[in-house]
Amino acid sequence: MLGTLEQLKALPRVTDITRTMLRFGLHDIVHSVRLHRVLDLTRDLLGWKPDPEILARPLPERLRLALEDLGPTFIKLGQVLASRVDMLPPEWIRSLDQLHANAAPVPFAEIEPQLLADLGRPLLEAFKSFETVPRAAASIAQVHYALLSDGTAVAVKLRRPGVVDKVQADLALLEMLAAWLEAEEPAVKRFQPLELARQLRKSITRELDFAAEARGQQRFADNFTGQNDIVIPRIRPEFTRETLLVMDWIDGLPGTDLAAVDAAGMNRDVLAARGADAVMKMVLVDGFFHADPHPGNVFYLPGDRVAMIDFGMVGWLSHRRRDELVDLLAAVASKDAAAMRDVLLGWAEGGRMSSPEHFADDLGRLLYLYERAALQEIRIGTLLNEIAGVMRDHRLVLPADLALLFKALVTLEGLGAQLDPQFRLVKHITPYVRGLLRERWEPRTLAKRAARQMREASVALSELPKLVGQFARQVGAGGVGIHLEIREMEVLTSHLERSVNRLAIGIVTAALIVGSSILLAVTSDKGSFGVWLFGVAGIMVALANSVWLIVSIRRSARKPG
């Protein structure tokens, strides 16, 4: 698993991790990843028994407690795993959702030198007043209350000294373990542990960089400019550093205190609707969303306004992803299992399944349960969890960005249901989906799409001679080999014939496009109508061939085997 030097360096921390997991009764996990073999731990350690009270707790809860005990990297690992509704069953997700990064605060005397270095001046020159006892403390940062010179209340977020070195060491260890698991454990490989470790690194690295968090938070604020019912705390850029973040203090009612919300006379229905509309705008319009909209990250303000905080965990969606999401939601609305299957198979990167038809059948059975339900009655969170369950059954794994989105939508619907038992997220999704579907077929959108496709085709065409040359050189040098596993010769022969025919047609089509384009370019100056007509005819034949190829490929994709 590890080289000798790396093993020696990692040994104390791996021993600590193993001991913690054993202490919380996670023997099965230790053995499943073979930590005991990697370290050759003593029999006494491996035979160590946890407290019976700990063993009486459910396994998901014991895992959560162990991750909390191991510190910030593992807390973040748990949060990343909590987003993987496509990998873990709901009871594990619910437990990991309760991960808390609360920690004892760092004494101000230890953190003050870093703060003064960031400020570049004495504390009371930068602030009118400053509370040295933090209002909140977690494993990565702690938050202090302060007043600016003009009396504005601000939250001062300070990174804990030494946390970066500890996190980086843990990340390196987890990546090495993930690489070993992916190479040595076939049963674990489908979960893409190395990709999961890389996702963890990206997430926690961003969370450690407060300047990056500030830029993201400012982007959210810009996206909601002029929308007074959604409040994003204003960043104070003059103070922003990698280890320091200053923003306006939100003096509202926490999302966890619904009794206070009722006592203040706030309208729960309005609060739920505004929060949902805000997140759907983030997802479907902006493509940049708060990935953890749980009650602890939400405050309610007078006038039934909603404030969001803690933008350390965010998600991005490309235009293509948003289009795919719209297609999935439209398939759900029309109860089209085949369309759902096509979208989900496209998302399942690297997934392997024996039968896409069985996958579609399982989706069809799932949708049958919703067949008589009005769209407004569907709980999106429940449906997404059920879709994720079908994907788990068929050994399919979502890309990280979509797993984060699924989790955010599930969390959002839970938040809305706490405020309003009749809340349905689908009610807030539907207008956005309809608007995006209309926009998709607008002439302006079609023109942009056509222009983009033309540019891509032009680039591909310009690369064709080089690729053909490279292929020819490889063939000449004997560098191209074909490895076949022959099961049914007749089927193989048929597939091979079709493939050769398509390849031949593709080569002819490419030659026609290149040759005809040259003829058209030449005649544009010299005006020879006959040659020009021949060039146009070549382009038309190439177009017909392209259509035939697309139809042929799509037909074969629908056929099993």
Structure description:
The chain contains 25 helices and 11 strands. The protein has 561 residues and is of the alpha+beta class. The chain folds into 5 domains: 4-98 and 186-193, no CATH class; 104-137 and 140-185 and 194-249; 257-441, no CATH class; 448-478; 487-561. Strand 2 (136-137) and strand 3 form a beta hairpin. Helix 6 (59-70) runs antiparallel to helix 7 and helix 18 (337-347) packs across helix 19 (356-368).
Give a concise summary.
The chain has helices at 4-23, 27-32, 35-39, 43-46, 52-55, 59-70, 72-82, 90-96, 108-119, 123-126, 163-184, 186-189, 193-208, 210-223, 258-263, 268-286, 319-334, 337-347, 356-368, 380-393, 400-419, 426-440, 443-476, 489-526, 529-558; strands at residues 129-130, 136-137, 141-147, 153-159, 230-231, 244-248, 253-254, 288-290, 298-301, 305-308, 314-316. By secondary structure, it is of the alpha+beta class. Strands 1, 2, 3, 4 and 6 form a 5-stranded antiparallel β-sheet that branches.
Beta-strand proportion = 5-15%
Domain module tally: 5
Q: What's the story with the biggest beta sheet?
A: 5 strands, antiparallel
Q: Taking Cα atoms only, what radius of gyration do you get, to the nearest Å?
A: 29 Å
Helix content: 55-70%
> pLDDT under 50 segments (min length 5)?
1-5, 38-44, 484-492
- The chain-level mean pLDDT equals 79
Distance between the termini: 38 Å
Number of strands: 11
3D shape: globular
Tally the helices: what do you get? Answer: 25
Indicate the structural class. alpha+beta
